[in-house]
Design brief:
Distance between the termini: 87 Å
Number of strands: 0
Order of helices and strands: HHHHHHH
Oligomer: single chain
Largest sheet: none
């Protein structure tokens, strides 16, 4: 995840765990680093023990003595972390789909406002001004008339 785009991490389960308060400061720090790493990697599987050593940054003796207790505490709070992360991810995807739908509506409305008005097909036809005559035209000025032949139907 990009920096600053993480969900808030639920720490209540860790703070309420009775063994966590009985640990030394170094062991508490290692456990908190482990939980932070797990949350930062979006609840992915934990790396190997050697890589966890690099994540927690302890002294060798501290690591050897507190590793089992640290992992026991982590494994007890892990289901709560997974559940909360899944809920937040589902909620985020729903919110993103709603926002995308609203953004599409806004874009469509903006395009409709910017689009030129629809052309009326009758507006395209050239208009012809009616000629106004001062006087009545004579038959010679009007030209010859055509006779339309009438046919009988039937």
């Amino acid at each position: 995840m990009k920096r600053g785009s993480m969900f808030p991490m639920p720490v209540q389960a860790l703070m309420d765990h009775p063994e966590f308060h009985q640990m030394s400061a170094a062991a508490c720090g290692m456990t908190v680093r482990l939980v932070f790493h797990y949350w930062r990697t979006e609840c992915a599987e934990l790396p190997s023990k050697g890589e966890l050593y690099c994540v927690c940054r302890p002294h060798r003796r501290t690591w050897a003595s507190h590793y089992p207790q640290m992992m026991r505490i982590f494994n007890e709070i892990r289901p709560g972390l997974d559940r909360y992360f899944a809920e937040r991810s589902a909620r985020k995807s729903i919110i993103q789909s709603v926002q995308a739908n609203q953004a599409a509506k806004r874009r469509g409305k903006s395009l409709a406002e910017k689009a030129p008005p629809r052309a009326d097909p009758f507006d395209r036809l050239p208009t012809r001004e009616a000629e106004r005559y001062q006087r009545v035209l004579t038959p010679e000025e009007r030209g010859p008339r055509r006779r339309v032949a009438q046919t009988r139907l039937g």
